Amino acid sequence: MSSRDYKHRLLVNLARALKNGAIDADEIASRAFEECADKEDLRDADVLIKRIKKYLKSLLEQQESKNLPLVDMLAEYCKECEELDKVCENYCPVDAIKKDDGGHYYIDHKLCAECGFCVDSCLAGAIVTQSEFARVAAMLFQTKEHPVYAILAPSFAGQFGPEATPESIKSALKNLGFTDVYEVAMAADVLSIFEAQEFIKRYRNGEKFVITSCCCPAFIKLIEKRRPKIVNLVTQTVSPMIALGKMLKKREPNCRVVFIGPCIAKRNEARLADFQPAVDCVLTFKETSALFEAVDLPLTGALGKENLLDASHDGRIYGFSGGVTQAITNAINYFAPDIEVKPVKGNGLKDCNRLLKELEEGNLEGNFMEGMGCPGGCIGGPGCNITVEEGLKYIKHYAGKAPVKNSFMNQKAAEWKKIYADANLLLAPKYQKKEPGTMTQKKKKERKIKEPVEKHYTAAWADMDKKKPVTKVNLPSEEDVRNAKEYVDSNQK
Ligand code: SF4
Ligand code: SF4
User: Fold this and answer.
1) Is the pLDDT of residue 445 over 50?
2) Which ligand 2 atom is the nearest neighbour of the CA of 266?
3) 3-135, CATH topology level
């Protein structure tokens, strides 16, 4: 039995109890135990039931205190496992799990980047993370006081089984109780342009190297803790999750926003004082699966299929390593074709740390860096239900169905930015003080960046229903895309 089994059974039973309005902790724990325990061997039954109760208590208390670490080790459950391939310290990419003089493992929080990778590595369940699962379940099943929006991370495609399409997932989430569902990839489109503009400006000012802050909090935490000398190279932009949360709150201040994604590190990002108000809760794909199971929701499309037409191809590829680079490079090439982007991609915290060290020492070739805390990018995140390879396949397929190719063609994103997001809303306050650039200033003319106009009827996805499909996939023709792009460029009414 893996630690995930009892955690998953516990989440399912907790959600059912919250839906029925009867919280009996002992009953929830014993049901979870019954559903997951290996009936052949109950030698560890007492340990397991104790662990389940402890985990349930933490879920119910929601561990809201900002003073608690996001990821921590419960020393009393640590079995000091010595099976080399399973020891938690082998899972930590930045060597933050250590042994004290008494042979007990602990997490060194001065080094921990809060990626959450170690949480499910511990078979004894001794490594825990804060969870907002109970809060979200209560929001959906009990209080129902506010509109609750689900915002889906770009890596969501394929995470809920092969039969669950993005369209059926949207319908199922609305059946679950969410008021509406949006793709975070739409905000990624807004930010690809924003980041491209910042890169161009800094490049023109003579800065040699820019690190994109879009969109991994574990990578940013790594820089802050391990490489603080180069933190000023990080761009000032908030992540797509925060940007979309902020836009929704601007539109509807009393709404609640729940991010659904692969990430544990996003929980702390959502709580940062600098980013309020934006995202109220963060759920992983694993936790969301438990919600679906608790209410027995079919994900096959039986509940309907609602179109998700929020994002461009480039916004949707943020979910894998290299996707952010590709999206921002496309935007830079569009707005300033004379600039050569020389990207460096950190794939996983270990790789990121190595590259950042080289950068700090002045030995890294390039002028732009993307860092993803998880190997493979977000599709390798600790909250994923499927493998990196599967995630990559689904994301590429879904990105291929996007109504437009590039961020700067996404009229819906431009419209949202225009209405709900002034420049300040998209800035991360903590990185706003920058050292001036050091290179000789070489001013070159760049393409004037215009705000695309509103109106969906001119967008490439307008009249989608009337398009003749070239393949089984609904895509606008190249001419439509070209027309839409020209329209956006010329800003005609
Ligand atoms: S959360 Fe990540 S960085 Fe922190 S101890 Fe666990 S694996 Fe290491
Ligand atoms: S790569 Fe994605 S899932 Fe992993 S820590 Fe970064 S944002 Fe979270």
Assistant:
1) no
2) 8
3) Alpha-Beta Plaits (3.30.70)
